[in-house]
Amino acid sequence: MQRIIRLVFALCLTICSSVPAELPMLKVAITHTTDNSGVMALLNPVFESHTGIKVQTVTIGSGHALRLGRSGDVDVLLTHAPKDEITFIDEGHGLSRHLVMYNDYILLGPKSDPARVKQADSAIEGLNFIKQNQMMFVSRGDESGTHKKELSIWEQINVIPAGEWYISSGMGMGQSLLLANEKQAYILSDRATWLAFHDRLDLELIYESPEELRNPYHVIAINPKTHATAQSILAEKYVEFLLGSIAQQIIDEYRVNAEPLFYPAKQLSDHRQLSKVDVREGNYFFDAIVSASKLMFDFDAELYFVVWTSLKASLLAVLFASIISIPLGIVVALNRFRGKQFLLACLNTLMALPTVVVGLLLYGLLNRQGLLGDYGLLYTPSAIVLGQCVLITPVIWNLSIVAVNGADPRLAKTCTTLGASFIQRCIIYLSEVRFALIAAIVTGFGRAIGEVGIAMMLGGNIAGLSRTMTTSIALETSKGEFEFALALGFMLLLVAFVVNIMLHQFQMRSR
Amino acid sequence: MLYQLNNVGFSYDSGFSLKEISLEIHSASITAFVGPNGSGKTSLLNLFAFLETPTSGKLSYQSELLNQNNIAIFRKTSAYVQQNPYLLHGNVLSNVELGLKLQHIEKIERDSRITEVLQLMNITSLAQRSVNALSGGEVQKVAIARALVLKPQILILDEPFTFLDKDSIADLEALIVKLRDDLGKTIIFTTHNYRQAQLLSESIYNIENGRCNRAEFVNIFHGQVNSQADQFDTGNIIISVNKHIKEKISQAVIDPAQIVISRDKLESSMQNNYQGVIKSIGYDSGTVTVTIDAVEEFKVVISQNAFLGLGLDVGQQVWLGFKSSSVLLC
């Protein structure tokens, strides 16, 4: 038996592993912008063919990449958050930091440029105009390199950006650009993503200054003295390759739509070497749970606002979905009609409807060019309610049918012999199978409050407006803020627990 | 004539069917259908309650042929109480009131009818009790009250005695007779118990494999009990019976399977022993029915083996005996 288990385990490992075991492997954390640009897909195969070292890339934001570096989960980082990178090196996590390439950030905005940023002499002045005129500005808000650059500009004019005009999206660059487009807001973007998205956007390049808004990408090899598992020899080879003439030439010649995306680091130099070692030690789970508990019991305003937004959206979605689907469920269950089996098969299929598909369909309807674009629902809590309603209507509908079918078989005859009309029969069933219907509603609620795709795509993850528990968990995890993410995870479980306790109490009292 | 069935057939998708049923039911009468599970009793009751229409033959109600246009109107004249009835959640009052509410009857009228029916069923004290706290007998009573409050002409009861204790059975038997005698209701019920059917009904039908035949009444004697209430006098013979508390006893029924035949007088604990002459012998599948003239006429059902062992023949003198507990009084 043990031999069989070992054999199956080995087989699973073989299937799961896409990399042959004999090849040395290097784990590299890269950012979304470099990955999206396609340049890494050119560089890595060249490195692999030259050295025989396999590269496995992990695509995340700069903040998260640095977190992975701190925990020793990767061997090399390619990030664009200069200030944090320096801190990272100073803490002793990185062996060395070298500039590989750079491009620039650009300021985008509506074509009418209501804040007159085009007249600004610098990016600082431009953002100041936006702030003074209280014009909408979309921030990534995810501690990415772009977000950090934006914050550094606000810092220079001593402004803490907040208010109705300032939208913190918590999403990637592409999604944030779509949000800025919907809101006709200003946004700081990297040039590569702008080039990839500009066809789809009704925005304009308002301000550019390659010198002032430089976006440098640095490579950092992880320090093997701090993290024993780090593949420092392989990492050094990778660093050497990126700084070498072959890689630099690839970067120099790389074009998208005939536009250069990156400039090689040849003419610039910003290297930093390890100076001191100060390693933070601790237990991840314990620390995270303690911090999460603290946030919860300190009644952290941000945490509870996110919880409230989630609850509000999901409860409304459940309310509307229940009003639609419970009567439909009872009517379908109590009737025989042509196509009923087909309808049931469809409902069963829709039970497994992926949230992203609902998000995509409704995005097509709600965006500015969509059929319902005029209502301005996209990136509002109402859009989340609508999306979740669409998601859970088939769930509650189907479970209502199951509830009615599961009623005592004597009930049908009782209704007939008492002379109940069809409507009266429906009402009697509604009352008699109420517990099963409540269970259907609770299941729908669970699906709504736990989904992330719709809330992210239609709500936009805007801080203080449409940020829900699940989108917040996704965002905080991507930023490496595991404590907050875990606190939200606990809250999510708590909400589910409270709802179930309430259902149980209701059942006990009704009996 | 209330119901008239001519060659009525009814079949389900599953294949089971009622076949060629012809019978008549008069108003203000009690009719029993006796048969094993799966024989078709409930299907037949569905036809009487107008929940289904025959798939062949003709069913007339008050001389009017049943069709899709009048079935809903006919249905309102009958009330059906299922075997092991279903009560909706809530209390007794809400269940009894439900049918009236469904028919949009005014509150004053509802209250008056409910008070009346609760008194009739002797369940006024249960009005506010939750249905979950009722015994099997009480559930049956509430279900009948829920049916009767609609003032139907016909009360249809499917196996009403199945889940009842001894006292509840006696109460329900008395109620069935009362509903016919005092309120002129027509009652149709099904049962497994042949003696019970004989005691209560004017007509009994045996139903088996979807076929229905009129059954004859056997060992049913008319008379009265003495002052000590331990003997029943038919006018021709005295039958020892168990002491009882019922009033107005006028009938005694003895199950033919509980009577013992012997060639000589039996020395046993059986209180009733009579000598008689065999009048006729009837053979059925596995059993033999022996008719004995012992001043009153008795039918006795014995196995074929017992019959052969006794070597019985027509004209022979025999003794028959039965216990007082085998006598059912009504």
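Chain B has eight helices and 21 strands.
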